[in-house]
Every structure is written in C-alpha cells, then in structure tokens.
Write a structure and sequence with these properties.
The protein has about 300 residues and is of the alpha/beta class. It contains 9 helices and 12 strands. It has helices at about 35-50, 85-95, 105-115, 175-180, 180-190, 195-205, 210-235, 250-260, 280-290, and strands at about 5-10, 10-20, 25-30, 55-60, 65, 70, 100-105, 125-130, 135-140, 140-145, 235-240, 270-275. The strands form 3 sheets. It has a 5-stranded mixed β-sheet with strand order 3-2-1-4-7, sandwiched between helices. Helix 8 links the parallel strand 11 and strand 12 (about 270-275). Helix 3 crosses helix 9. This is Glucokinase.
C-alpha cells in the first residue's frame, strides 16, 4: 500500500489508495451519516487498511479547517460544526503513520496541478461547485494554504446584490447563491417540485422555466465570483469541478456570459474557465499528494 487517502465531503466519505503516479483506487464510499461521522470514517479506514502497514494517510475535507490543530468544522456536517480533531483521531488509529491534512480545495488544486487541467500553467484557481463551493489557489506552481489552511475558499466571496443567508453566518456568499442545495431551495421557493441538484439540472436541460432560471442565477453568481478572484490573483485559468458543475449548458452559458461582463480589465483577456479532468477523484488524488505540498508542483 502506498498512501491511504480519506475524502470527507459534505455528503459523502470516500477512502482510496493513491500511487505515486496519481492513480487512485477508490475502495470505499458511503453517505455522510447524520450521527457517528468519525465512527463511519474509522470503519472505512480500517476496512481498507486491513492488516497492511500504512506509512502515510492523506486527508482532504470540506471546511473550514484549522490546519495548525488538525481539526475541521465543516459547515454541512452539523455533528462537527463546532470542530473535530481529525488528525489526532487518525493518529490514534494509526500511530505509526504520517498524517497529512488539508481542506478539499487545496487537495483539488494539487490534483489538477499535477495530473489535471492545470498541469500546463503555474498560476490557476481550481474550484468545486457541489453541495458547497470551495477552491484552491496555485501561484508560481505552488498551492497556497494560508495560516489557518483555508486559502482559496472562493465559496465565501460575496456576489453583488445578494443578501441570501449563508451557513457561514454571513450573507451574499456565492455558496449561498450558486451551490446545488442553494439553487434547489431557490427553485422550490418558486414552485419547482424536485429535490436534488441533479433533478434541477436535468429539468433545466429539458427546458423547465424555473429550473433554467435557478441555473442561470447560479451561473451569473459564479461568473462574478470567478472574475473577482481572477483579478485579485492575476490568473488566466480556472478549473471547475464538482457534481453541480456538471449541469451543462444551462449553468455554463450564463457563467461565461457573466465572465464576459465582469472580467474586462486587460490582464484578464486570456482568462479561461474549463471543466475538471479529474471530477470526483480529485480530492482523493490531492490527499495522496499532500506530501508534495511544501515543494513546487
């Protein structure tokens, strides 16, 4: 076994084995339970490890995180919203292992930089649009981490005109407007009867008026947030992954139109937004690459 990788998302927990070439074998995946989240992680890790020695464990997780203490407080996992010491817990489980830990956006950026759509450029933003919105920043070939470990968390850029309440406690965050669950809630408030982001995307693709409006609203907000981040960071590539980002033309067209309206300053003339090449494998791959975090990608 090379590296054991743990991906803790807002809705799923996955464990995989990651080789030095970035190839990932996902061995276990479950939905995040309403209670007993650590017990579920522990069961998955132990079942995958078996009797093998585990030298390195990489953890990628929804945030926010507190990297110095090795703890996380995911906004979408209520049981852990006040903090859970994931690194000490994993160390207790595997005392001889080296445990590496980062927010999922950092893992995403590492994966895309080494093996995905950002491997040809030293400066990029990688982001995920799913149950939440997160991201990671690549500058000069290095992935930024930040003093708490939350650098690149684009989901909490505020978009113009929105006062939608966000789970973080603020208002107007792009996550509160453009994530899958946020878009579903907005559509339901206007009479749409579906329940999931996948249904919303499918209905939009089939011409449902409310579903199309929900995805257009999300796309415009994403374009606003991306153009703001690109201007701040002076980047020319944004890689977008995540389940809700696969909604297709009803989301991507308004996002590109919004970019065209807002990313107008000269140094952004070559800005490109492309889909992730790694999709739902990205966080696992990036967790396996955390040993490379201190060196240029």
């Amino acid at each position: 076994m090379t590296i054991l990788a743990l991906d803790i998302g807002a809705t799923k927990i996955a464990v995989g084995v990651v080789g030095a070439d970035g190839m990932t074998q996902e061995v276990g995946r479950i939905q995040v339970p309403s209670a007993g989240v650590w017990e579920a992680c522990q069961e998955l890790l132990l079942s995958v490890a078996g009797d093998d020695d585990v030298p390195i464990i990489g953890i990628g997780t929804a945030g926010p995180v507190d990297a110095p203490s090795g703890s996380l407080s995911p906004l979408n996992i209520p049981e852990w919203s006040n903090g859970f010491p994931i690194v000490p817990a994993v160390k207790d489980l595997f005392p001889s292992a080296s445990v590496r830990f980062a927010i999922d956006g950092v893992c995403l950026a590492l994966a895309e930089r080494h093996f995905g759509a950002a491997r040809q450029t030293p400066d990029a933003l990688a982001m995920t649009v799913s149950s939440g919105i997160g991201g990671g920043v690549i500058v000069g070939g290095m992935v930024a981490v930040g003093h708490t470990g939350n650098a690149g968390h684009i989901g909490h850029i505020v978009v113009p005109g929105s006062m939608d309440p966000c789970a973080c406690g603020g208002v107007g965050c792009v996550e509160a407007v453009a994530s899958g669950p946020s878009s579903v809630r907005w559509a339901q408030g206007r009479g749409w009867t579906g329940t999931t982001g996948l249904e919303l995307a499918e209905d939009a693709q089939h011409g449902d008026r409310i579903a199309k409006a929900a995805l257009r609203r999300a796309g415009i907000a994403l374009g606003q947030a991306i153009s703001s981040a690109a201007a701040l960071l002076d980047i020319d590539l944004v890689v977008v992954g995540g389940g809700f980002a696969q909604a297709g033309e009803p989301l991507w067209r308004p996002m590109q139109e919004s970019l065209g309206a807002h990313a107008r300053i000269g140094f952004l003339k070559d800005l490109k937004v492309v889909p992730s090449e790694l999709q739902d494998r990205a966080t696992l791959i990036g967790a396996g690459l955390l040993t490379a975090l201190s060196a240029p990608a």
